[in-house]
Amino acid sequence: MASISITTGLEKVSREGIGSPAGDPESVSSVSNITKMVLVVEYNGSRYCGFQLQTELPTIQGEIERALKRLTGDRIRLLAASRTDSGVHARGQVVSFRTRSTLTPETFVNGLNYYLPRDIAIKEAYKAGDSFNVRSHAVSREYEYYILNSPTRSPVWDGFCHLVTGELDIEAMNRACQTLIGEHDLASFASNLGVEIKRTRRRVYHAGVTRDGEMNIFSITANSFLPHQVRNTVGALIRVGLGRMTPGEFYSIMEAEKIGLAGPAAPACGLYLTKVNYKKPFEEEDK
Fold this sequence. Notes:
The protein contains six helices and ten strands; from the N terminus they run αβαββαβββαβββααβ.
C-alpha cells in the first residue's frame, strides 16, 4: 500500500515542478502554490550526530531531507523546533518545510516512513499557515531524562538511560529542582553558547524527579534551553542525590551564572525531547 501512494505522489510532483529552496525555509516569501507542512518526529538518536545537518556525518535532518527528496523529487530544507545533540532521542520533535507537492498529510506520514531508516519515524503531519514558524512560535519545550538507579546494568535499557549504582535521594533532588522554577540566568548549566545565543535567561515552568521502580525520570519544561542545559542540570542533580552536593550548593551554582559550572554533563543516551508546545493547533495557524 505504501509503495502505491508513493508512486502516485511522485507523479503529481513531477507535473508541479520543484519544491522549496535549500536556504532557510522560514525566510522564503509566500508563493501561492507552496504549502507549509509540519511533521512530528520520533527517533532513536544513538547512531546520529544530532539533529542538525552536518557535512558527511549522519544526522536526523539529513535522513529526513533525503526521504523527502525520494518522496517528492524536490530538494527541501527542514527547520526544527529544537536542535537535539548527538545521541539524544526524541518522541515529539517538530519540524517544518515548504513544498509544492500536493501530497496529503497522511501520504507524507506513510511515504516518509517507507523511505526512512527504522530508527526515525514520522508520527503526524499537518498543513500550517505560511507565517507559522516552528521555532519562534513554540511557547515551551519538554524534556525527560531517564536514570536507572540499580546495582546492575540493564540490557533492555542499554543506550536509553544513564545507570547510577549508588542510591539516590529523590527528595533532595526535588528540593534542588524547585530552585530552577521561574525565570533565571541559567548560564552555569550551559556548556557553551556560541555566537547565536545572546541571552542566558530562561523561564522554567516545571522541573522534578519521579521514581518508577528502579527508573528515575527527571522532567523539565521551559520556554527554551541553552546548549547541554538539561544534561548539565541532571549531572548536578545526580551529585545532589548521591549526597555529594546539597540543594543549597546546587542553587549557588545557578546563582553564579558562570558558563559550564554545573558540569560534567550526564550522558546523552538518557535524554529525550518529549514535546514542543504551541498556543494553537497547526491547522489553525493564520486563521
